[in-house]
Amino acid sequence: MNQAASSPPAINTLTDSDTLASLLKAAGDPLRLQILQVLAQNSYGVSELARIFDVRQSGMSHHLKLLNNAGLTTTRREGNSIYYRRAIVVPNQALAALQSALFASVDQSSLNASVAAQCRAIAAERAEASQQFFADNADKFRAQQDLIASYPVYGEQVAQLLSNTPVKNAHLALEVGPGQGEFLPVLSKRFAHVIALDSAEPMLSHSRAAAQSAGLGNIEFIHGDTTELSNHKVLADCIVMNMVLHHTPSPADIFKDLSAALIPGGALVVTELCRHEQDWARENCGDLWQGFEPDDLTQWALDAGLKDGQSMFIALRNGFQIQLRQFFKP
Length: 330
What we know:
The model is unreliable at 1-14 (pLDDT under 50). This protein is globular. 46% of the residues lie in helices and 20% in strands. By secondary structure, the protein is of the alpha/beta class. It contains 14 helices and 10 strands. The strands form 2 sheets. The protein has a 7-stranded mixed beta sheet with strand order 6-5-4-7-8-10-9, sandwiched between helices. Strands 1-3-2 form a 3-stranded antiparallel beta sheet.
């Protein structure tokens, strides 16, 4: 083997040396290392991180500036707020090996109990806000979704992707957030048993009514979120999640929950908004996130032990774009 070919890129320019110095400075503080650990699991604003670590907001802003300048974190705007998350390591880039080793070392540590408790509290508050929106707007959900992307816009393509998704068995399918229940007939026809999971009871009632109207007798309805799948001992051959992720408080955790609920060889099909800047959707449609970059979903799936499959993208006339993604559990 050519040893030189497998070595990380050399640091041979002043720019690379400056980048290395910036990275080492940013990593040389225990609090900043804990921030990197927390940001691996979710995106947070400055005030949320200040709350999590019980520090002044001005001090947190200083730490985040150092991390961002070192390329260890990235930012995204959600409405009027800026959210931080850990950067994705780009292979073959200078310092990629060092950055990967740093992240791996950080992730080996256990979160401080008070830090973990604050993270859970923020996730619960986000989830409650999302559930309250759907509880208040369940009867208007279809009209609000039509403002962005109604089911007819992507339903046929999702069904096509599902038909092209190889699964070992057709015993059990799970749909997370079935909404009005439009996709349940597709799953009911292909799988012997289907579970519809929703954290908002009013939305689940709509799905239940739609299934009853369509005469679907193999659907089981569960009121809850993905953290409860293990309690129900769900092991699905296939999981479908259509336009749900941007309503969830912690997308990375969703992927981990769903990976655990898949059998080996099982498939996860995700339909989701691509990243956009139309912040009116947050108020009008109950969105927590303004879509996601494709690399976001890829990284969350990888961290959850899933492999990437096919991808499709649909551009809409109103400026939104939808990504249809396929993932597999080895």
